[in-house]
Amino acid sequence: MEEKSGRIVVMWGHLLLLAFIAGSILYYWLDARAVSLRPNNLILVQPTAILALLLVLAVVPQCFPRLSEEEIERGTEPLSHFARIGALIASFTAFALSLETIGFDVATWLFMIVGLYICGERRWWLNLIFSTVFTVLLIYGYGAIIPFPFPLSIL
Amino acid sequence: MIEFNDVNAALTLLTSSLDAWIWLIPGLAIGLFFGAMPGISITMAMAIFLPMTMYMDFLPSIIFLTAIYTAAGFGGSVPAVLMNIPGTSSAVATTFDGYPMSRAGRHNEALGVALAASVIGTLFAYILLMFLIAPVSRVVLKLGPLELFAVAVWGMLLLGSLTGRSMSRGLLAGAFGVLVGTMGMNTAGHLRNPLELPWLFDGVPVIPAMMGLLAASQLIGLITTDYLIEDEASRKISLKKIIGGMRLALTHPTIILRGSVIGVLVGTIPGVGSSISNLLSYSETKRNAHDADTFGTGNPKGVIAAESANSSSEGGAMATMLALGIPGGGATAILLAAFAMQNIVGGPSFIANNKDIVYAIIFANFAQAVLLLGIGLGFVYIAGYVVRVPLRYLIPSVLVVSTFGAYAIEGNAAGPITLVVFSVIGWAMVRYGYPVAAAVVGLLLGSLLEQNLIRTNQISGGDFIGYAMERPIALVIFALMAISMALSALAKHRRKSRLANLPDQSM
Asked: Can you tell me the mean pLDDT for B182-188?
């Protein structure tokens, strides 16, 4: 067998994801056991949770791959990339949480402006025009199709 | 098998007045439009137009609703191919190869392939339905919880073939999905709500979670890309290439036939239907293909397999609905509601007394499939323009439309919040090589698996093996599953050895 050259790298992001998955599964399993220990409650949840935790253990070593310098360089992404993704996730979260409070119209308009900027549209006039037209069309168009009352502030 | 007097009566019903026909094209157009809108399900489209049918006669109302059903089934594949957003659970497998085809600039071909496979699948299903409606209804009555559990487990084991580079990550994603899918109150009355949120009583909202895992997660990852298709020359919308895609689908009759048979058979099973049939068909096609390694990277065979199966499931679900009065899913439940609005009760007595109407519905569906070819062609031509929209506009716009859809489905902020949470989880999973589709399948099947396992446990008194020995259909399903998995493993092993024996041409 040929031994792969290079050095061991810790994939912190992957470890974090695994910790989240394992933590959620463990918490859910314990919570289900606290509800009831009867077979009708645990018949699927318990074996699946145990299997999933064993699988987490099987995946953990994959977070420490041995990579060549070339592979490490190829896999490195600029921090600005993560900053943009983080900003988009943060604004998307704020949008979802504010819909009912500030109204779908205002929330959509604000998210569109911020979202377009984060995604790369730097021409402010175009950003404002597109966000406004999109919001108006969507509110009236979707409202016509779906009879569900979306909370609105202005439109 | 076919009663010719009733066939004649059906043809007379359909040709004696225009009433039955005038709703066909509007129904197809509505179905295509709503099916292609992210977040609007087939069920929702049919539910919105259900009240309209109160003012129609029975046959036109059913033809109108089935036209929406047929077209929305295909409509869901348009965002699945172009944006990796499956409009419904039945379009999940379409995204596996449809979206990579789009990203490689083969969106015209992918849409053409999907359209042709859908139309042929629908036609095939209704031809089968015409011959098999009576025997199928007898078999479906014999399926118990163990059989349904076996089918669901089969769906779960398919995860093995859906996984990418690591089997352990695929299975972990699937198990995680199953656990999420079991949240909320189970059929035995146990409430598992670890976050103590009132809107989790009924479980995690499935459609918003699915939209987040599959679509929004991909969009977030595309933030540094300018267009869905990077190469400018490949972004063109070409009717010629769409038709070329349709021709390509016709060169794979075996895949269409296999997909259609799987679709019809699985579609007859209540509660399972098209959400599993497209995965089963995809997996079987991948297992039998000599180029299985290219599945998931833009192989048109994957799109053909998924689309032929999900569209033919409609015929299977209609068989169960007409023969037994049992809805296989939301769409057939709405059809049953339309029956009730006209004071007609579906089920064995309906078939026995109204075979002419049943045949008329089947013939009208033949016409729908043929018309869908023309209307769908025009529709995909227009919808294809989405690849020319810069991603900096497409990303926030699709996120907003998905959020509206998620809110409309749930009726409160639970939908959008679920969408956001699963978008982030999905993005992280994609980033570290976890197949999100496996998590989606788990999520869809979690409660079904648990429900049938509990019922089997109750009926058998805990003696699963003894009970299984008395259920020949369940044994056949388990045997088919074992054979299919063994063959998959063998095929994988052979491919690996073949690749290992190849001279190293990399780099």
From this structure: 88
